[in-house]
Amino acid sequence: ATLWNVLFKNELLYAISLQNISAIGFYSGGPALTINLHSSTTIHINRSETAQQKCEVCIGSFCQSSVTLPNGLVSVVFSCLQPEDIFIVEIIRHIEYPSLQNFSRTFTWNVRALVQETFRLDFTTTGLQQIRPTESCQDKHVYSVSTGTTRLGIFCRHGTIKEMQVLNEGTVSLWVPGNRQLVTATFGVSLGQEITSLGIINITLPAENSSQEFFSPNYPDSFPDDDVIMWSFHVPPKYYATVHILNHTEPRCRRKDARLEYQLNGRTVVKKLNEAQLSEHPGPFNLSLQNCKKDTGPPSSSLSLQFRVSATRRSSEGLCNVDLTKEEGLLIHIKKKKPTSACILKLNSHAQETVTIRSEKTSYLSFIDCLEQDLLLTINKTLACPQQTNCLFSGVSLKVPALEKCLLGVLEQVTWHLYASQHGTVELMSPMGGLRQLLPGQTCNGSAFLTVSEDEPQGITVGQFCPQGPIQKVQIRVTNLTVSACPNGNDLRKISYPLLNVSFTKMIGESYIFTVLPKKDMAVLLATPAWPAGMRPHSTVSWIVTFSSKVQAHVGFSNISRLTCQNRYACIKVQKQGSWDHLYSWKEDEKPKDIVVKESFYLNMSNCMPLKGAFSVVSQITLQTSKDVLVNIIISVVILLLLLLIISTVVKKKKQKASMVSVYNPNGHVFLPGLHGIPQTTEDEDFHIYHCIDDTLVYGHLLKDGMKINQFEDYCVFFFFGIFSHKYPLKGLTLVLQMSDLFIRFMTPKTFA
Ligand SMILES: *[C@@H]1O[C@H](CO)[C@@H](O)[C@H](O)[C@H]1NC(C)=O
Ligand SMILES: *[C@@H]1O[C@H](CO)[C@@H](O)[C@H](O)[C@H]1NC(C)=O
Ligand SMILES: *[C@@H]1O[C@H](CO)[C@@H](O)[C@H](O)[C@H]1NC(C)=O
Ligand SMILES: *[C@@H]1O[C@H](CO)[C@@H](O)[C@H](O)[C@H]1NC(C)=O
Ligand SMILES: *[C@@H]1O[C@H](CO)[C@@H](O)[C@H](O)[C@H]1NC(C)=O
Ligand SMILES: *[C@@H]1O[C@H](CO)[C@@H](O)[C@H](O)[C@H]1NC(C)=O
Asked: Which residues cross the membrane (predicted)?
């Protein structure tokens, strides 16, 4: 082994390089030096080419700009006061031990600075890469750097560690296995600045996607008690670094905790070892591992850390500071549309899969490689009455909150959480010309649709609504209500007008009241709350339907669910406004009827406690003048005739094959094709009977000129007995066919009512 000690004095500056089993040093000294030179060493004292002063170096009386010292004791004198500013000293040590070549060899450089001072090891030319103590290097040249009794690490050549600053006393050793030639490598030594840690390791990440591992000093044994080590990373432009802890052990601490401290852009961020670390950080950063004062009690615990630093090139970064300090109860949630997208979301310097920002503070966001359509935004806004106060307010507008342009993402939902005072009613009105109930399968014309839900007890959806329709007001007897707006296609951000006006009012008598102003000739569909699921047990709903006396309303119940009640009835009642006159009533064990109402009315429904099934109804209201009704009858008759014609033709064709045709309908419902009436489901009726109808009898009295009756021969038409109704889709006419006695009778809604 070769051992070479270099003593550092304050005013001396050395650099040692290792070259072909030789050591080279530089120094500059005081005005006079006495040096005893061995034959294996060569020293050059050269004036620096950049020196301004004309200082000379003299041996005896012979002075020149540079000298090569002879062997043996020699005195050197300088012609100026501070020759160290002007001269460079090169010390070349020739170490040739061919006889030791077969042995494994360790070359050690002991470097000492004065107390509190540091020396700097410059590995710029080789670069080092830290390895696990049990690992070896490809070229079998293993370096070890220590300070005092602490081993900073074990390294191979060709890495990203360019420099180390080590506190006052250090050792660099190089181990080469037997039978292997020492390969040239150079490192420099110089005095460093004062530091507060055990050492600083400078790493320059390459300008390519990279990943490398680092270990705490003494790994896998404990990092010294109460001490600090720092890694200083230089990240090339456009690269983003992420720190990931691969393995760690934590000591039991007497005071404070072992921690990692990041210095980034002048900020200090402290992280515990078990926390998520720095992610996607651009620019340089320092990372310090700080140990605590350990608890001395057995069993001993230790601090060790293995971490990876990776860097990836990114092409764009958008910064966005969202100031919500003046907002209240606002929450913005950002998520990636596809989790696999390259887009990186950061909140306050931390990369996150999803980001939630809250009101009353400023959030610092950054979007790396993100496109607007990569991200989805949702907003929650809370409107609450202060607790315990009887707060009634009116006309609060629900508007899509304006978002900063820099906040990327498609706004796909805004949810308002309305917390009223106890036992109140939430009243919703559209400032945009009413609301239309949106039933499954339908679409909205407007740019957004609204979903109204009750929070309690289990998040019931009251209904979905489109802007512009006959529903003027929705009153819901709840304390907490949720209203969500979703875009009808694009982005909610473009909507600047208020979507709803909300008032918290006094309690109403029904669970729900809808105020409806239908327009003439436009069918209004009204579904019970929670459609298609049933209403809550014992809940009631009322539609206040108001229209002018010039028209009459045709009311149909197209879709009533089947249910069995435990005690009370589930019922539907139609009642004249401002009077107790019942125009119609229905209980769950009856067949519903379509009716015509001549003046404004209440349509009230109440649920029972269902034993089986649930209570849900879709009602259809159409306003018409009496004249329209007549026109409809004529149209309906023509349609019916055509229909029978089609049926007869079909049946006739079938008859040619078999004289007896039979159809089995396993559901027990028989519908005429094209007629979507209400099925008659009373058990004592037989739905599966075919009946022979004489053409002439059926429509002889209806047909006018232009149609030859006798072109029809006798044939079978299948029909079921009883009454069925058909809502004529254009005008809402009810056509009632009485099929008994082989007659069809047409009744106007008036006759029916
Ligand atoms: C110093 O001068 C000698 C002789 O001129 C030369 O061989 C050597 O490379 C020089 N050293 C430096 C560091 O310039
Ligand atoms: C090494 O890192 C320290 C701490 O960040 C810094 O002061 C020093 O200038 C760095 N050295 C080099 C060569 O980058
Ligand atoms: C993590 O550290 C423990 C203790 O030092 C060690 O036993 C284990 O092998 C390490 N695991 C990995 C994946 O390095
Ligand atoms: C925000 O609103 C959505 C949709 O209603 C809901 O699922 C979510 O729980 C809400 N978040 C908070 C924090 O209230
Ligand atoms: C309404 O919401 C508030 C806040 O979430 C909650 O504390 C309260 O219990 C809810 N009230 C009812 C009746 O559900
Ligand atoms: C129907 O509802 C209205 C309120 O919408 C109410 O005034 C009326 O009393 C209710 N009628 C019945 C029979 O419950």
From this structure: 629-651
